[in-house]
Design brief:
118 residues, alpha+beta, two-stranded antiparallel ribbon, 6 helices, 62% helix, globular
Length: 118
């Protein structure tokens, strides 16, 4: 599944993981590293490594938390929001294509089974 999404998002220069990370940052207020790491079920070191290419491309900005200078907050830049806007329709159409490969009742059953495993 990840490879299918990687293939579809490749024209935008994104991987499935980068898309998920950018979606997790698409909030009114910048989240902390701990909040995003918890949401994506990854440790902070892995999150930091995943953020670097997005930051280099100018898609994400990392700043010190004004409430606690030791912490970091992450936000999409205008360029990042623009790219995410272009990526969401690709993500949606890929989901529809995957669901089209399953029989009528199977998408809901698959989601139910995946939630049970998580």
């Amino acid at each position: 599944m990840a490879r299918r999404f990687d293939d579809e998002l490749r024209p935008l220069g994104l991987t499935n993981g980068q898309f998920s990370l950018m979606m997790s940052l698409n909030r009114p207020e910048p989240p902390s590293m701990a909040a995003v790491a918890s949401l994506l079920a990854m440790d902070r070191t892995t999150l930091t490594a995943a953020l670097k290419p997005l930051e280099r491309r100018g898609l994400v900005k990392i700043t010190a938390n004004p409430a606690d200078r030791r912490g970091r907050l992450m936000a999409l830049t205008p360029k990042g929001r623009g790219l995410l806007t272009r990526a969401v329709p690709i993500w949606k159409s890929t989901h529809l294509a995957v669901e089209g490969l399953l029989s009528d009742s199977e998408p809901d059953l698959l989601r139910k089974n995946l939630r049970a495993l998580s």
